[in-house]
Amino acid sequence: MVFYLKINRNEKYTFSNLQHWIQIIECIPNSFAYIICDDNYLKKAVLEQVVFTKDSFKFMESYKGFSELDYVVSNITNDRWRNAGYAHLSTFWHARENGYSDFWNIDADDTCICLSPQRSAEVLSEAEEYGKHNKIDVFSLDMWITRTNGTHWSFGITYVNNSIDWFHMIGKNCEDESFKEGQVQNVDGYFTNLKMRTDLKIETFYVENLKFIHYADDFLRRPDASGFFHWRNGKLILPILRYCIGMESIGELQIDEEVVKLCIGISDDETKDFLLDYILPGEKERLMLRVVVGQQQKAKLSGANREV
Fold first, then answer.
1. For tag attachment on the chain, is the N or C end more exposed, with fewer CB atoms within 10 Å?
2. C-alpha distances in angstroms, 86 versus 3, 4, 215, 238, 299?
3. How is 60-79 classified by DSSP, letter by letter?
């Protein structure tokens, strides 16, 4: 399996997130990762800070200067989203040129599946198997469908069936303004219209009890476009909106009925262990000690009260 890991943010979280994705991919037999990075300084920083234990990755830059690709990108993205458009569609271009039958397209700098590498690999495997069995053309994690009441599909963590002539499918309507209306002028918005207005099977999935992070430089200033996700019991819970700000109406959502439910038996404890190690490295033992001390103090106080 081929994975395209797209990065463009030079932030602390970029390197920990990319490291996690590399570890996930290294758990998958016969896998290979292309890291799409157009910034030489960021590439150098990755080589200095990310550990690769297998010779199964290669850097590549976004493709530009090919008439077919330039035509599509220029017509479906505006100036703000142009570079992102090239990065997204370079995965399709490169996969076509190399004869890959399918692949994963992943925003690797600002996303984190909150599970161990081995279990995260199971998440991807479950989605891939479901996608293949049900002949889904593009299958993406529920980062926006539920949050927009089913009106905006998005890439992010996405499995792609590459047996389709994608550039033909994208290109034949890319100059039709009526086809493109109603969506943000970027690749995600265009694929939303492909989903709604063609026979392509462009679908979305979630995994029961999965926790997931979509990073931003400041979660509190972008609570509706980034943050912490938790899919459980038919609900998507966004804790910053739900509990920190107190906006239950947009912080605890019924998962959209079109989103496919997958399940690999994720427990609360395994997620907690991952998060303690991942977000607070070196702090796990101190925090667990605080729990023990707190329990001891509570027991002492309870005993003293009984004596009185």
1. C
2. 17, 13, 22, 30, 60
3. E----S-HHHHHHHHHH--T
Q: How far is the C-alpha of 264 from the C-alpha of 16, rounded, in Å?
A: 24
Whole-angstrom distance, CA of residue 39 vs CA of residue 287:
38
Task: Report the relative pairing of strands 227-232 and 235-237 from DSSP bridges.
Answer: antiparallel
Say what the pLDDT of residue 76 is.
95
Contact predicate 126/207, CB 8 Å: yes
- Judged by DSSP in three states, 90 sits in helix
Q: Is the pTM of this model over 0.85?
A: yes
Contact call for residues 124 and 32 (beta carbons, < 8 A):
no
Choose among 90, 128, 115: nearest CA to 21: 115
**Mean pLDDT (the chain, rounded):** 93
Q: What integer pLDDT is reported at residue 284 of this predicted model?
A: 67
Burial group, residue 204, by CB count within 10 angstroms (0-12, 13-18, 19+): buried
Question: CA–CA separation, 223 vs 246, rounded Å?
Answer: 12
DSSP helix/strand/coil, 53: coil
Residue 246 backbone class (left: φ over 0; alpha: ψ -120 to 50; beta: rest): left
Nearest 5 degrees, angle CA 19-CA 123-CA 85? 65
Structure confidence by residue, pLDDT tens digits, 108-153: 999 999 999 999 999 999 999 999 999 999 999 999 999 999 999 9
Residue 150 tokens, joined:
């089913």
Nearest to 105 by CA among 143, 155, 141: 155
pLDDT at residue number 304:
63
